[in-house]
Amino acid sequence: MTFSFTMSPSDLLLLLPEIVLTFWLCLILIVDFSFPRLPNEQLAYFSIAGLVATLGCLVWFDVAGITGTLFANMFALDRMALFFKMFIVGSTILVILASVDYIHRFKFFRGEYYFLVVMSALGMMFMASANDLLSVFVTLEFSTLGFYVLVAYLREDMGSNEAGIKFFILGIFAAALLAYGISLVYGETGKLVFSDMKTAQASPGLAIGFLLIFAALGFKIGSVPFHSWIPDTYHGSPTPVTAFLSIAPKGAAFAILLRMFLVSLATFRPIWTLLLVAASILSMTYGNIVAIAQKNMKRLLAYSGIAQVGNVLIGLATGTKMGSDAMLFYLVAYLFANLGAFAIVIAVSEAIGSEEIDDYSGLGRRSPFLAFSMLIFLLSLAGVPPLAGFIGKLYIFVAAIKEGLYVLIAVGLINIVISMYYYLIVVKKMYISEPHDRSPLKVSGPIKVVVYVCLAGTLAIGIYPQPVTDWVVSAIMMFSDVADPTAALPAPPAVIPFGG
Amino acid sequence: MGDLTLLFILFAPFAGAIALIFVSNRQTMLVRGIAAGSAFVSLLASLYLFYAYDPVKGGFQFVQRFEWSRQLGISLHLGVDGIGTPLVLASSILLFAGIFVSWHIKDRTKEFYIWLLILAAATIGVFMSLDLFFLFFFYEMSVIPMYLLLGMWGSHTKTYNEMTDPEGLKLRDSVGFIFNFGSNSKEYAAMKLVLFLSAFAVAALMGILLIYKYSGLNTFDILVLREQAKLMNIPVLGTTLDKIIWILIFFGFASIAPLWPLHSWSPVGHAAAPAATSMLHAGVLMKLGHFSIIRVAFEILPETTRELMPIAAVLCMFSIVYGGFVAFYAKDTKYVIGYSSSSHMGYVFLGMAALDYISLTGAVMYMFAHAMATGMLFAMAGWVYDQTHTRDIPSLGGLSNRMPFISGCFVVGCMASIGVPGTVNFIAEVMIIVGSWNKYPLQVIVAVVGIVLTLAYLFKMMRGLFYGPMDQKYSHAHDAVSLPDRLPLLIMISVSIGFFFFPMHLYDVVRSGVDPLIAKITRVVPVASHDREPSAVKHEARAASPQDLAALPGDSPLTPYVSRSDQ
């Protein structure tokens, strides 16, 4: 196999967002070293400026419809990649805004924090475009590298160190599985690019290879049975990092999963549907049931995250275009609700220094704004109308029922009720329990911005989802390899005259 | 207003709730004013709706349709027929009255009104949805405000562990004990209500999704589905698909109604809720169940309804008798009214189960009438609780000296609840009984026994609260004197009595909604000339219209139908 690396300027254009961000990454380091007295907020806003510029590029690409592939199909820039890149960059901006006040807890290397966050974002942007197994491995490790450091950033905190070690050991293990899986698949097919593997014949080596790759990606998204690192890591990490970890890598890994299952393995759909159905049922049920017992807000959100991933996997299990649309939609809804919830966890822990659910007692009296926002985010996670999470769940269920996954939907519906219980326990603490201490809470400006953005997203998508629906539909529409003729919608039947 | 009436009714409370967010809690009068104002807009619009609804034309009127999601086939499709119209009116009356009933709430007034307005608006939304998705959307939306209203402003008397079971037994609810639903009765009630209703709501959602899939029409629109969905005779799991869907829909929605074995969340919820919430809860929230069954199961699966509706006829007997007896032995004012409500909802199920023109019309009118009657009773129970801080009937008594106005109204409320001539409840009850007699004589006898029971427990409660010797510690209790305190009761009483004397428009409106439905289900059309009503001309015009006939399956011979009240 030969690679030709002749690149024209127009090819470089496809890499423009990544190039912008790489430059900015270097700038962040330079600025940090050159101006050691620069206040941390300035550096945060400086990083955000770079991310906004990248987001601008991505939006321009999306609007202008610029797509293409590079490096012998290793790097694909299609509408889906653009969607996930916007998803990742958007969540990074919100995470950096939410960390502005948290930074003072780090004793050292405050400037490098932003560098690492942006670097992980860059890695995940490449992940969203990874179109062959080698680039999957490289980009996945690239993005995880930053996280290994970020998770253990609270150096003097035992929990953070423990989280770092757990994440690192299991992450390395997952990487080894991934490498082994890739070698098996390559050995069986002789191909690395996803779209070239469509014609692969079934063989035990191929099956084991893809199972190992799925395990590695399952580690990234945190679905049962690859979830064991999640609670401790989420609990121990600095909260903004937890927020970042709970959103962005999942998005990037789902991009790879979509390519892998819907492109390479399209012919084996009946088999992998079973695998995904099992993973989804286990994730939802395990995550929700264990979440009931949690006393710590971050752990609760960790387990709820496991359950939410189970919901997203329903969309993947359908294996249709509509299912993929629904996944993307759900991820957007999840982004706003989850980041918003974590922003409030940060705000509360800044104000009262605790993340225990019990200390949320009487939040409704101490800070009506935080309590109301938390209520909205939790209800969106639970799937209550008129919030984004409800539409996302319904979208996924509709996609799944079209494929006849009745058991999966029944389990998903029952899980909504279970999740309602533990989310309402938090609501009960916030609104019904009396506060231990009645002093009002102060919320800083950047956190407020994050909360407002997430509130607006959660409510707007819930009340009028059409723009986001159009966006996710077009994101998958351009994903040329998922040509599923059955997914084309028939024209809605004409409305019959009223009366009678 | 014209065509936009429904939007006014639906969005005025939402707009009020949003406006309230920007008002400070200290400006109490402004908060109340905004809440009352938005409820008043909604009330005016629904009065207009009620009187502008044309029963001769029938069908769905004031229809609004906005594309909402192309991919999912959802549109915000609003419209009311003869069944929805009175219920919309009842909701907005109770919302308006409820705002005055909760005039004296001091703790977080603003938040209270926000959630109350959202609750009412969501309820109203269900009554006017012509899209399965939005029906469910508004239905689910009404549950969470209930949780907060109960939890934050509810009342509780005992700690959870020593909570006396409403049925008089001292026991811990095993489920609640394991999961610690809350430390006292109101937290327990709130959590139980939400989980119970959500659990059954998702069953209904499963039914809705199955309809969506098997109709293959990519739409949630009820009007399209009822004409074009072919869900019959699809074998699945040893039975047919339509039966499974019907069971899911029926029990999913019957839980909020509440039908007998699914009722246990309801009285606890009533007891814990603040007065205005109990009013809305018993007055209209419970009717969401019947309404959704009519709208979804009756409209989309008429044949299955004919086949399976006897289930409701059996269960409604238990509802009536069980609720009645528990209410008789309950010692808590709100438990009495709560169980009486779930007992009375059995009448509605009886009227629905008989699938008869008269009985279903009676059932819908009864929903309207019961909303007023139970609204009054809860408002007054709330007043008594506010004054005495107890709901324990044996410890109360002789309050009529202290509160003559309330005790006078209470008599009217009891009369209305019993269905004494002079209130619209009487008309509705008689119609249910007369309409169901041919088909379900046993149930009718049970229903009459239920009326006697109602009389017994309401009079017992009335005596316990207002007559006999009075404990001196209640000597500070005072009557409803000011206009805001009296207004809600006066409104509900005048509606209840007014529609007894002028029931024709209500009857015509409801009948215009019931006729096509029953014609479709039973395949018999009423013979217009046999209708005794003075407005027979109108019916003749309608019965002869081709629309009615076109709605029927073409191949079946139409059996002439003679109004049973004539025999």
Report on the architecture of this protein:
The complex is a heterodimer of chains A (500) and B (567). Chain A has a domain of 215 residues. The C terminus of chain A is likely disordered. Helix content of chain A is 73%, strand content 1%. In chain A, strand 1 and strand 2 form a beta hairpin. Chain A has 500 residues and is mostly helical. The radius of gyration of chain A is 22 Å and the shape is globular. In chain B, helix 1 runs antiparallel to helix 4, helix 14 runs antiparallel to helix 15 and helix 16 runs antiparallel to helix 21. Chain B is built from 24 helices and six strands. In chain B, 68% of the residues lie in helices and 5% in strands. Chain B folds into two domains: 521 residues, no CATH class; 42 residues, no CATH class. The C terminus of chain B is likely disordered. In chain B, the strands form three sheets. A two-stranded antiparallel sheet of chain B has the order 1-2. A two-stranded antiparallel ribbon of chain B has the order 3-4. The longest helix of chain B has 32 residues. By secondary structure, chain B is mainly alpha-helical. The interface between A and B is large, with 45 and 59 residues.
- Principal-axes geometry of chain B comes out as globular
Topology, number of strands of chain A:
2
Biggest sheet architecture of chain B:
2 strands, antiparallel
Number of domains of chain B: 2
Largest sheet of chain A: 2 strands, antiparallel
Helix content of chain B: 55-70%
Contiguous low-pLDDT stretches of chain A (5 residues minimum) are 480-500
Proportion in helices of chain A: over 70%
The rounded distance between the terminal residues' Cα atoms of chain A is 70 Å
List keywords for this structure.
heterodimer, A: 500 residues, mainly alpha, 19 helices, 73% helix, 1% strand, B: mainly alpha, two-stranded antiparallel sheet, 68% helix, globular
How is this fold's topology laid out?
The complex is a heterodimer of chains A (about 500) and B (about 575).
Chain A: H1 9-14, H2 16-34, H3 40-64, E1 68-70, E2 75-77, H4 79-99, H5 110-129, H6 133-151, H7 158-189, H8 204-221, H9 230-236, H10 239-264, H11 269-292, H12 297-318, H13 321-352, H14 363-366, H15 368-382, H16 388-402, H17 406-432, H18 445-463, H19 466-477
Antiparallel strand pairs in A: 1-2
Helix pairs in contact in A: 2-3, 2-5, 3-4, 3-5, 4-5, 4-10, 4-13, 4-18, 4-19, 5-6, 5-10, 6-7, 6-10, 7-8, 7-9, 8-10, 9-10, 9-12, 10-12, 10-13, 11-12, 11-17, 12-13, 12-16, 12-17, 13-15, 13-16, 13-18, 13-19, 15-17, 15-18, 16-18
Chain B: H1 5-21, H2 28-52, E1 61-69, E2 74-80, H3 84-101, H4 109-128, H5 132-141, H6 143-153, H7 174-179, H8 185-215, H9 222-228, E3 235-236, E4 239-240, H10 241-254, H11 265-272, H12 275-300, H13 302-308, H14 310-329, H15 333-353, H16 357-388, H17 399-402, H18 404-418, H19 424-437, H20 441-466, H21 483-501, H22 504-522, E5 524-526, H23 536-543, H24 546-550, E6 559-561
Parallel strand pairs in B: 5-6
Antiparallel strand pairs in B: 1-2, 3-4
Helix pairs in contact in B: 1-2, 1-4, 2-3, 2-4, 3-4, 3-12, 3-16, 3-21, 4-5, 4-6, 4-12, 5-8, 6-8, 8-10, 8-11, 9-12, 10-12, 11-12, 11-15, 12-13, 12-15, 12-16, 13-22, 14-15, 14-20, 15-16, 15-19, 15-20, 16-18, 16-19, 16-21, 16-22, 18-20, 18-21, 19-20, 19-21
